[in-house]
Amino acid sequence: MIIRKWSVALSGLLTVLMAGAFAPSALADGVAREGEPPPRVELVLDVSGSMKERDMAGGQSRIAAAQQAFNEVLDAMPEEVHLGIRTLGAGNPGDDKVAGCLDSDQLYPVGPVDRLEAKTAVATLRPTTGFTPIGLALREADNDLGDDPGTRRIVLITDGEDSCGQPDPCVVARELAASGTHLVIDTLGLTLDDAVREQLSCIAEATGGTYTAVQDADQLADRIGQLVRRADVPVENPAAVEGATVCADAPLLGAGVYIDRAEFGEPRWYRVPVRPGQELRASVSVAADRAMDPDHGVLLRAVSEDGQELTRGTGAGHGRTDVMSTGLRYPLPEPEEGDSSTAVAVCLKVSNSFSVPEGQPRTPGLPVELSVDVVSGPDNPSDVAAFGLARGWVPLLLLTVVGLVAGVLWGLLVRMGIALGRAH
């Protein structure tokens, strides 16, 4: 118990050290940008009767896991984000479907957050035996966010599919995506049910959002936190592209976000023109939109046109992971005097090791989202690299010092724990 308490303290110390190490980068790419409206996020929480189920990690109920996650997210949320909270299925304990399918209320208005007030409001929630009007709640959440310029995001947390039927939540999501208000809906499922997965994937995919299944409060808090922090990222509608089976036939891509479908066991190839002195930055996400076998991964490789691997990024997960992502960076050296600065094509190869259980459909392939950026070194003074990593010798030195201090402190704490154990 003593070691556990000290390990928590050590984690806090490391957080402080890392925050200090990357403070300049955080300020450079912070949420609030001068002259721009604040990003707005609304968390939509299912409070229907099934949220009482105690099937989360450690025997925790689904609603308790959600409340714990909300508290952690509120503590860590950037001050600049305007956040609201809406419930569905919270106020109608009866069997009246007409009333139950109108049961969605705004628990906390979208705006600057009073953390204590928001936490108190969330703590009062108790699951009822009500219905699950997801389609209605999404429409109401869109109204809550308003129509002012700026990024708008809905994060839906539920353990079930819509139980009302009208309006159909997938249709609502498509309507909202087509309205031109730059809304993204991310969905979090607190169950591994296939029907829930299918509907939540449909909602997220319609707006360029993500679907993730989570099974404990820590996972839920981490994912909500990521989505809230991502709220300041400008919405960019992905462009449809079809990757090739070999590099030579691959489509030529510029900077942007692209969507494709990856067949099981078949890599997809793309090409990006990069000039000497520029840096290629790419990331890929492959989503499991149906039941999958456990243990899967995604591989992103940068390859020269003559087949030489330049660099790679990998990601791996298990049966509870529904989206696998990875990324890479590849800088081309500055041309030497007299050398040509003509762009060369760098091939990007996306592979995945997802597989489906017997009886699950293999077609269509899995949704793939590919982000590509090409940055000119001398023209890009930012010290922030892709995927939130710092670059240069200073961050590396700071990371080394942090690692050394952490190792020494951990060794001392373990020894103290052993000594105290012997003393007792």
UniProtKB/TrEMBL annotation:
Residue span(s) of domain VWFA: 40-227
Signal peptide stretch: 1-28
Keywords: Membrane, Signal, Transmembrane, Transmembrane helix
Record SUPFAM superfamilies: vWA-like
Pfam family, one: VWA_2
InterPro entries attached to this UniProt entry: CLCR, VWF_A, vWFA_dom_sf
PROSITE patterns, A to Z: VWFA
Organism of origin: Streptomyces xiamenensis
TM ranges: 392-414
Name of protein: von Willebrand factor type A
Protein origin, superkingdom: Bacteria
